[in-house]
Amino acid sequence: MMDTATAAAHPTASDVRTVVVERDFAHPADKLWRALTQPHLIEEWLMKNDFAPQVGHRFNLSMTPQPGMDIVIDCEVLAIEPGKTLAYTWNHPHQDPAFDVHTTVTFTLTPTAGGTHLRMEQQGFRPEQKQAIAGANYGWQNFYGKLEQVLAQG
């Protein structure tokens, strides 16, 4: 039997929560792949960044949603299968454990008859992070809307 501190430090699979957002885009996979991996396009739909499509590359995503509120996400590329899969860590250190997020984001692209199905899975939330989970779900829905606009532009 684990004590509470150990259980919190080493969550079991049943303790982990995941946010999944999926959408069909009327664009080919290579176009979506560019939007997921080119820094200037990532900035248009997600956040400012110093991303490079190399396993092991550490980068930051950052935004200032309102004056004095700077958000910085620490990331590291974990996996790349060009045109198919991209995974990276998504760590947002915070003093409040409810918002101290250490997750993995995985994008999976699947060609469809009308374009591409994009699945985003953000895994690793703890059960007590209900607000962070709701925020991630809301945020990814918004990001997907912006992604659609970027894809429509070019």
What does this structure look like?
With 154 residues, the chain is an alpha+beta fold. It has helices at 4-9, 29-37, 39-45, 130-153, and strands spanning 17-25, 48-49, 58-66, 69-81, 85-92, 101-112, 115-125. Strand 6 (101-112) and strand 7 form a beta hairpin. The longest helix is centred in the C-terminal third of the chain and has 24 residues, at 130-153. Residues 1-10 have low confidence and may be disordered.
Structural class by helix and strand composition: alpha+beta
Tell me the helix content: 25-40%
Unreliable stretches (pLDDT < 50, length at least 5) are 1-10
Rg from C-alpha positions? 16 Å
Oligomer: single chain
Main beta sheet strand tally, sense and closure? 7 strands, antiparallel
Number of helices: 4
| Strand order, largest beta sheet | 1-7-6-5-4-3-2
Strand content: 35-45%
Could you tell me the mean pLDDT? 91
Order of helices and strands: HEHHEEEEEEH
N→C terminal distance: 56 Å
Envelope shape: globular
Beta strand count: 7
